[in-house]
């Protein structure tokens, strides 16, 4: 996984709450057996609408999504994270993420930055006035910044310490866990014999 | 201080704990299917890793498989590739697989419990959010993404931050005709889709204790629909009776040892939950959704709500968008909503008890001529059991389609899909936009509501039916 330190990019306002994983990528697009190529399915139903925000020219090349609360609810499909990444997104900003989506983001290297609801509104207002404007997300200092001068936005975002550390270092989870293999083997020796197995 | 059930099960599975790090949690059972596993096996191959415990891993084909012509090669080449990839991976890595055509094939969350692999006090994961179903047995069970699937395959563990705990206490008894599905839909409308976020929820109270294992699975299944990490129910005699004698349940002295341990898996009296919700089952009624998330519901006897009546602006905007998508007018009685397709099935309501209840209501009636009824058993075993009881004949005589086992129209990955604008009453778990097919409109309902709706063609409960065989019946 690549290290994530800071990112500056064009931010897109997605003014909807409860953006579920079936909206992020409908099930019919989940049939690939690779981790790439899912950008076609991203917001597939909404992108049919020429007015949909991602279809507007000022947001071409966007890499930061600024969404309403409860982003990523529903299914466990990591394809939702891959679709966002395959399309070019590096960061999603929301006031609340569904647990599994947030977990999947951390594993796959997409930054899920949780901010106060008011911060989402401030960024939306800023993007309304300045369509195509960039936002900077700094993982080191856990801050989001947009605009300049007296109206500049600078606020903090939440991410758990462990995920932040892994993203900053670009670490592979499995490698970390396998360094504790002796603990796993020791635990396995204590499991009751009546626990079920799938092969006899 | 005492511990909650969830804390006891969690503590029993901690392999390693360290300051500032999530717990390393041992996983007792890892369930796999064709959609969320291929990239995980690819990852193992790239890193030269093996599956650490194939004997704690089970694979089945369920998400994209057809429910017609399942004995022929899958027509859709992309689906076929995905299924064939699972078969190759299972063989290469030594994982037990129940493929299409196998007697144990079916929806992963139906197969685990019916084999007796799902037992109290376990940790169970699967690359599917409805893994919470297995919590009905007093297990901690939750859905994971593909990176975590790979992690479990390689290490049989997961790094997990310890969630908070919540009790949902449902006092009183459910009135006749009101089911576990109505209970959980009522709860989700009460909490909203994010209300359970960050919590492992324990369902308790008289109404929960009175549920069958199938009903408990329905409730735990939908824990994810209000954002909970997992939902569980303390094991009791109902649980033990369900498990005893199942193929993978402990036998002889192992059974006694297991039950002795399972009986300790209750929340201590002096344990404290971080949060508590109390509901009264006796006031609950058949419940249906009107919108595009499972928290947008009303009693069947109610009307489509007016968005203007929502206090929060976000809820108002969401309701407006939902009504536009659903093609509904505020104030319309739910009972007047005309339905094109009724779907009976899924990991929420696709077990034998569900099919028995549906058949009991449908028996002697005909499906409304403008309505299609699709009955999809949750597993091949459920299908065979239903056929041995003659339920398939009841469905077919009523004009329903009797299908093969799988996830089917719950998520529309196989050919069982709604067409744009088509409206369903569905016993599944999600009414998201496009979930059952692009442009499809879903109302989540219980089994009795689904069955009655199929007969009348509008959202209905069995109380609305003219008794089978009476003179009014022939008018239709």
From TrEMBL, chain A:
Keywords: Amino-acid biosynthesis, Branched-chain amino acid biosynthesis, Leucine biosynthesis, Lyase. One of its GO terms (molecular function) is 3-isopropylmalate dehydratase activity. Coiled coil: none annotated. One of its GO terms (biological process) is L-leucine biosynthetic process. InterPro entries: 3-IsopropMal_deHydase_ssu (IPR004431), Aconitase/3IPM_dehydase_swvl (IPR015928), AconitaseA/IPMdHydase_ssu_swvl (IPR000573), IPMI_Swivel (IPR033940), LeuD (IPR050075). Gene3D superfamilies: Aconitase, domain 4. GO terms for cellular component: 3-isopropylmalate dehydratase complex. It catalyses: (2R,3S)-3-isopropylmalate = (2S)-2-isopropylmalate. It is an enzyme of class 4 (lyase). Pathway: Amino-acid biosynthesis; L-leucine biosynthesis; L-leucine from 3-methyl-2-oxobutanoate: step 2/4. Its EC number is 4.2.1.33. Pfam families: Aconitase_C. Belongs to the LeuD family. LeuD type 1 subfamily. NCBIfam families: leuD, PRK01641.1. Heterodimer of LeuC and LeuD. PANTHER family: 3-ISOPROPYLMALATE DEHYDRATASE SMALL SUBUNIT, 3-ISOPROPYLMALATE DEHYDRATASE SMALL SUBUNIT 2-RELATED-RELATED. Catalyzes the isomerization between 2-isopropylmalate and 3-isopropylmalate, via the formation of 2-isopropylmaleate. This is 3-isopropylmalate dehydratase small subunit. The lineage of its organism: Bacteria, Bacillati, Actinomycetota, Actinomycetes, Propionibacteriales.
UniProtKB/TrEMBL annotation, chain B:
Binds 1 [4Fe-4S] cluster per subunit. It is an enzyme of class 4 (lyase). Its EC number is 4.2.1.33. Pfam families: Aconitase. GO terms for molecular function: 3-isopropylmalate dehydratase activity; 4 iron, 4 sulfur cluster binding; metal ion binding. Coiled coil: none annotated. [4Fe-4S] cluster binds at residues 347, 407, 410. It catalyses: (2R,3S)-3-isopropylmalate = (2S)-2-isopropylmalate. Its cofactor is [4Fe-4S] cluster. Residues 417-440 are annotated as: Disordered. GO terms for biological process: L-leucine biosynthetic process. Pathway: Amino-acid biosynthesis; L-leucine biosynthesis; L-leucine from 3-methyl-2-oxobutanoate: step 2/4. InterPro entries: 3-IsopropMal_deHydase_lsu, Acnase/IPM_dHydase_lsu_aba_1/3, Acoase/IPM_deHydtase_lsu_aba, Aconitase_4Fe-4S_BS, Aconitase_4Fe-4S_dom, IPM_dehydratase_rel_enz, IPMI_cat. Keywords: 4Fe-4S, Amino-acid biosynthesis, Branched-chain amino acid biosynthesis, Iron, Iron-sulfur, Leucine biosynthesis, Lyase, Metal-binding. Signal peptide: none annotated. Residues 7-457 form the Aconitase/3-isopropylmalate dehydratase large subunit alpha/beta/alpha domain. Heterodimer of LeuC and LeuD. Belongs to the aconitase/IPM isomerase family. LeuC type 1 subfamily. Catalyzes the isomerization between 2-isopropylmalate and 3-isopropylmalate, via the formation of 2-isopropylmaleate. PANTHER family: 3-ISOPROPYLMALATE DEHYDRATASE, HOMOACONITASE, MITOCHONDRIAL-RELATED. This is 3-isopropylmalate dehydratase large subunit. The gene is leuC.
């Amino acid at each position: 996984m690549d290290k994530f330190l800071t990112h500056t990019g064009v931010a897109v306002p997605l003014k909807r709450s409860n953006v579920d994983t079936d909206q992020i990528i409908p099930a019919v697009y989940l049939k690939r057996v690779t981790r790439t190529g899912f950008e076609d399915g991203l917001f597939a139903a909404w992108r049919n609408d020429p007015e949909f925000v991602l279809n507007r020219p000022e947001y071409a090349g966007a890499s930061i999504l600024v969404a309403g609360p409860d982003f990523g609810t529903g299914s466990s499909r990591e394809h939702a994270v891959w679709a966002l990444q395959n399309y070019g997104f590096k960061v999603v900003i929301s006031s609340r993420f569904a647990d599994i989506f947030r977990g999947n983001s951390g594993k796959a290297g997409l930054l899920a930055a949780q901010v106060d609801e008011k911060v989402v509104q401030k960024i939306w207002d800023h993007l309304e006035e300045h369509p195509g404007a960039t936002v900077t997300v700094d993982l080191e200092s856990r801050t989001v910044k947009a605009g300049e001068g007296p109206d500049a936005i600078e606020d903090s975002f939440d991410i758990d310490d462990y995920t932040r550390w892994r993203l900053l270092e670009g670490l592979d989870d499995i490698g970390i866990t396998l360094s504790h293999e002796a603990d796993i083997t020791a635990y396995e020796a204590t499991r009751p014999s009546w626990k079920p197995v799938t092969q006899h | 201080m005492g511990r909650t059930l969830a804390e006891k099960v969690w503590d029993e599975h901690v392999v390693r704990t360290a300051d500032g790090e999530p717990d390393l949690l041992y996983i007792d059972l890892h369930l796999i299917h064709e959609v969320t596993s291929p990239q995980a096996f690819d990852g193992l191959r790239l890193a030269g890793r093996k599956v650490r415990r194939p004997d704690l891993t089970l694979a089945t084909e369920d998400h994209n498989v057809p429910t017609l012509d399942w004995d022929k090669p899958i027509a859709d080449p992309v689906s076929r590739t995905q299924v064939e990839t699972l078969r190759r991976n299972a063989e290469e890595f030594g994982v037990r697989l129940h493929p299409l055509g196998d007697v144990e094939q079916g929806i992963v969350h139906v197969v685990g419990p019916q084999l007796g692999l799902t037992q109290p006090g376990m940790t169970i994961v699967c690359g599917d959010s409805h893994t919470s179903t297995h919590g009905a047995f007093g297990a901690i069970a939750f859905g994971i993404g593909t990176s975590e699937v790979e992690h479990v395959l390689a290490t049989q563990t997961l790094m997990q931050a310890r969630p908070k705990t919540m009790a949902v206490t449902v006092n009183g008894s459910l009135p006749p005709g009101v089911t576990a599905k109505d209970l959980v839909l009522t709860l989700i409308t009460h909490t909203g889709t994010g209300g359970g976020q960050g919590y492992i929820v324990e369902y308790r109270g008289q109404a929960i204790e009175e549920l069958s294992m199938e009903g408990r699975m329905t409730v735990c299944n939908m824990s994810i629909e209000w954002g909970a990490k997992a939902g569980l129910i303390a094991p009791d005699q109902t649980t033990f009776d369900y498990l005893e004698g199942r193929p993978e349940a402990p036998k002889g002295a192992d059974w006694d040892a297991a039950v002795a341990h399972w009986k300790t898996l209750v929340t201590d009296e002096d344990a404290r939950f971080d949060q508590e919700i109390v509901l009264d089952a006796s006031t609950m009624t058949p419940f249906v959704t009107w919108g595009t998330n499972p928290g947008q519901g009303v009693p069947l006897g109610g009307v489509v709500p007016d968005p203007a009546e929502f206090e929060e602006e976000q809820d108002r905007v969401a309701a407006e968008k939902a009504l536009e998508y659903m093609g509904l007018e505020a104030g319309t009685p739910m009972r007047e909503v005309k339905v094109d397709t009724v779907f009976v099935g899924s990991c929420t309501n696709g077990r034998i008890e569900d099919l028995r209840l549906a058949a009991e209501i449908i028996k002697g009636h005909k499906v409304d001529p403008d309505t299609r009824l699709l009955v999809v058993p949750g597993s091949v075993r459920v299908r065979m059991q239903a056929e041995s009881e003659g339920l398939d004949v009841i469905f077919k005589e009523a004009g329903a389609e009797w299908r093969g086992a799988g996830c089917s129209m719950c998520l529309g990955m196989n050919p069982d899909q709604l067409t744009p604008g088509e409206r369903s009453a569905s016993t599944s778990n999600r009414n998201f936009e496009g979930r059952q097919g692009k442009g499809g409109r879903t109302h989540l309902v219980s089994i009795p509501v689904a069955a009655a709706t199929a007969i009348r063609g509008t959202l209905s409960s069995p109380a609305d039916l003219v008794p089978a065989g009476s003179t009014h019946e022939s008018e239709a």
